[in-house]
Specification:
Layout lengths: L1 E6 L5 E6 L9 E2 L1 E2 L5 E5 L7 E2 L3 E2 L9 H21 L6 E4 L2 E4 L2 E5 L6 E4 L4 E5 L12 H15 L7 H22 L9 E2 L10 E2 L22 H17 L22 H14 L7 H16 L4 H11 L6
Parallel strand pairs: 1-7, 5-10, 10-12
Antiparallel strand pairs: 1-2, 3-6, 4-5, 8-9, 11-12, 13-14
Helix pairs in contact: 1-2, 2-3, 3-4, 3-5, 4-5, 4-7, 5-6, 6-7
The structure holds asparagine and zinc ion.
Length: 326
């Protein structure tokens, strides 16, 4: 196990755990044996990244290793977040219905691609470089943690990717992306309840405090929400999480209002995270929509904190605050 340094574009100067194979003593591989052997490859050449001296990339988007440093570091942070916060191990080496699989990440995907995704088929993540004019490389911490979280969802609630379950799926990925930002506390990437703020130059891709700030996402549940794109119906879940963690009227950027005009008192980010993750792993199923999300999280609150305590009532208030009533 090697302790190296990388120079990322979004992440800045970061530590990297890498390895050397005994039959190739003169090069290091961007592969982390301390975290399930997670590794990053070049989507064009399909080769894993190697380096002669362990000083990786130079922080510029033109150096081929730079995006790989961002992703490798961000995936390590995501791994540590899940392990330390929930005792959950991201199964990079795991059995799927197709046999053993490892969650690898490909960078420089496509041609100036302004997107990133997780694929159930390859059980891998892929990251585009952005067009460099309107977008940067899609390798920021919140984006990487978002994509890795799709693999967590696929192993737990298995939320569908359409309708309200799809919105809840996307919200879960956005929430985790932000929780990992808070966890990593990287001075190069301040935590903020914004999604993809380092990726799209004109502003964040999405806002959790008041999702409609992007002009298209939903703040509040309505019967129409289930027919929106999953990245827009996610607003209901993102907003509920924001209210649960922080309460209403707390945003620096707007006033984070509730949909029913009530005041919500937050339980704090750590408790909100614990409630959400417990609902995801123990209550929700593939067909869970927003009403079932509320019911499942109330059950989680009872399991974790007892019946009708402060946490239970905060969960009620947060979901009611986004117009998901019991
Ligand atoms: N970046 C998107 C996501 O992970 C890609 C997609 O539309 N599935 O949600
Ligand atoms: Zn997603």
């Amino acid at each position: 196990v090697q302790a190296d340094t990388g120079h990322g574009f979004h992440s800045g100067d970061v530590p990297l755990t890498t390895m050397i194979y005994s039959d190739e003593p003169n090069r290091k591989y961007l592969r982390d044996p301390s975290r399930g052997n997670f590794a990053t490859y070049d989507a064009d050449t399909r080769r894993f990244y190697t380096d002669p001296d362990g000083d990786w990339a130079d922080g510029t988007p033109t150096h081929p290793q730079t995006a790989a440093v961002d992703v490798q570091w961000a995936t390590a942070a995501t791994y540590d977040f899940y392990k330390q916060t929930f005792g959950y191990t991201l199964l990079y080496n795991s059995e799927t219905s197709d046999g053993p699989s490892t969650l690898y990440a490909g960078v420089h995907e496509g041609d100036n691609l302004s997107n990133a995704y997780w694929s159930a088929q390859c059980h891998c993540m892929r990251f585009g470089d952005g067009d460099r004019t309107r977008t940067n490389s899609y390798t920021s911490l919140d984006v990487v943690a978002h994509e890795a979280t799709h693999s967590v969802i696929a192993r737990t609630a298995k939320l569908a990717y359409t309708g309200e379950a799809g919105g809840l799926n996307e919200a879960t990925a956005d929430i985790a992306g932000n929780l990992v930002e808070f966890f990593a506390a990287n001075p190069a990437d301040e935590p903020d309840y914004l999604v993809g703020e380092k990726v799209w130059k004109a502003g964040p891709l999405r806002y959790m405090d008041r999702p409609s700030r992007d002009g298209v996402s939903a703040d509040c549940w309505s019967p129409a929400v289930g027919s929106l794109d999953v990245h827009r119906s996610s607003g209901v879940g993102n907003h509920a999480f924001y209210l649960l963690a922080n309460g209403s009227g707390t945003s620096d950027w707007g006033d984070s209002p509730t949909c029913d005009g009530t005041t919500v008192t937050g339980v704090g980010r750590d408790t909100a995270a614990r409630l959400w993750f417990h609902a995801l792993t123990a209550q929700w199923t593939s067909a869970t929509g927003y009403a079932e999300a509320r019911a499942g999280m109330l059950a989680a609150a009872t399991e974790l904190y007892g019946q009708c305590g402060a946490e239970y009532r905060a969960v009620q208030a947060a979901w009611s605050g986004v117009a998901v009533t019991g």
